[in-house]
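Predict structure. Chain length: 350.
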Amino acid sequence: MTGRRSRSPALPDPELDARGFVGARSVAERAGVSRSAVSRTFTPGASVSEETRRRVLTAATELGYHVNHLARGVSGRQTGIVCLVVADIDSPQPSRMARAITERLQEAGKVAVLLSVGGPSDDIAATLRRALNYRADATVVMSGTPAQSIVRECLDNGQRLILISRDDHIVGPDNIRLDNAGAARTALGLFLQAGCRRPAVVTTGLGTPSLSARTDAFVAAARAVGIEPQVVRQGQMTGYDNGVAAAHQLFAAPVRPDAVFCVNDITAFGLIDAARHVFGLHVPEDLSVIGFDNVQQAGWLSYRLTTFDHPVADIAAHVAALASKSRDDRMAPTRIELAPDLVWRRSVRI
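Prediction complete.
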């Protein structure tokens, strides 16, 4: 346990460690107590008298001492560190989710370490192995679907894994997922209520569990009422350009769809802009559109996009609760499914 020096010139020099930090021994000497008393003072729930606590805190303030939680965690059962493995951190939805989780972890006394999954060489397995070096209390995976082998390696090393919207067939980790299929069925129902009979769904060839669930459920719901929807799979990313490309594929055809469900909002924006400016269509009079994610731009006047929102606050609360469990309190993996919230705007005919 160490802390950065910040002392009054009138006080004698405290003993510093090799990096120039005030040590617990200096606090003990100043307070006239044992070093273990200093440790107990800064350990939540530890037994220490009020007088000892007062003397230790006074000495710590005078010397500018702060607890080194990392050193304490390495020598104990928990470090207080939670790693977040995130791809596309610049995109609105991953950024919003990472921020909410980080803030909730901080409220729970944890420190979030962000590990960004970058290019092709920076895969999920390599990133999870880096996370093991931190001896974190948990690692939250928001990107990719880890292979069972790296999951087993993490679990065998005492690492708790929390997957968000990942494949729930992986054995071992906790999983917090959305009812993507239910949302897709709701989207199809809204189109039918609006009188639309030529629906389409725009997705990618990426095939992540969440995107596949939205696509497959939409197609199944349409077929259940005797409609064969168009399915457009554009590229390996869910971006604005994919929405534009999908619009060219859909609206240049002799028979155009009158409703499109896009598996995320950014794709929907590209599709809407191309539909309007290239093909002269009006939303929602000629074309109803529903997205997914409820990013900030979905509420802009240019789009006023009906979409589904992630229950971000609930997800963050569940992550903090799972990450705060002790290693001795890890029974069967937790499986949590949350319903996305429908956000009604003006991109669907009434």
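Summary: The mean pLDDT is 85.
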